[in-house]
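Kindly inspect both lines:
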Amino acid sequence: MSGFPDALHWRSACVIDPVLKAWGGSWSVSFVVRCGEAATHFAFANGVITGVDGAAQFSLSAPGPVWEKFLQPIPPRHHHSIFAMHRQVPEFGIEGDELAFAQYCHIVRRVLEIGKWLALGNAAPAPATLRPPLGDWPEPQLTGGYVPVRAAGQTYRIFHERAGSGRDIVCLHTAGSDGRQFHRLMSDPRITEKHRLIAFDMPWHGRSLPPAGGIPGSWSLNTDLYIEIIMGFIAAAGLEKPIVLGASMSGEICLELAYRHPDAFTAIVACEASERIVGRKTPYAFDPRVNQAYFIPEWILGLMAPQSPAEPAMDVAWCYAQGGPHVFAGDIDFYAGDWDARERVGRIDTNICPLFMLTGEYDYSCTTEMSAATAAKIPGVRFQAMEGMGHFPFAENPGLFAEYLLPILKQLAG
């Protein structure tokens, strides 16, 4: 197969792989990786790779040039993960039992990682991740607590953390996650020297526990509720005209904050933001046949840039693995369902509140083209594409993200 190792070598490396061994158990799956007319079959029984007898449940297919891009040390955008190629590369396809793929996408991803490691001329076993290490990073100096926030007739106990001193920046986490995404940004002295970062966990997320009587699986977010929670937290925390920073679903709501409440903020930084997102809902984010703790992090890892360091990238995935039932799916109800600002983004007044938009090169959900098209409708907005970044910029690569954020903060200080 073009670029991939031969089948025997590849399967032998899977047999000794420490990650696949750790994931062993009472499960079985069989799938094929196709490159043009060539194919390599992988079969697991009771969590152990075996021979290739029997029919495959599903296959991943692409012509040689697509796989060759995937196998590069740093793949070009949209060729860096299974989910990115499935969404953005027409020549790539997943055929067969879609449910089985959702159940075992983490196994497929790891098998492909092993194949890539070998294709790059390395010996087995492959390391647990092919991402570069983060290196030394300071620990955040945090204080935290709870404030009551009333929204949609319900009182929530909202957990928040703070770090630094100076002008306030309210940090809004992404769908299905929590404020821990900002811990490394909160420990960057270049930012905390003159700014106080405040990150809070949305209701049902992280350390903001479900309200009394809340039914697990019932969480669903919409634009009005989201705005009410954010503005309620800002009031309860006693913040005055903070800067707001968000990405993904919180990047979207940043645009809405700029439209509805420009007088309430010093500035808004909307990352991975677009006026409308389609095609991001999946039934497998809340399907009793699919383990959310495996499936959702795989979806998340595929949204990150391959250059993003291992430790923050895996931290992001781990926080997603800890989400409650329907919490991520309920957020996607807003992100790729209720959210539609096509008729109002053009009425955002950046003379009242400066608006900055930043989008990562490797984001296949909200692409740089989508963000640029939205920015073109907003007079006075400053838009910039972030090279080497994905969908979770402040969390997956905080050092690189700071290089884009610091000039904005300097401009606002001036």
About this structure: DSSP finds 14 helices and 13 strands in the chain. Residues 280 and 336 are 6 Å apart (CA to CA).
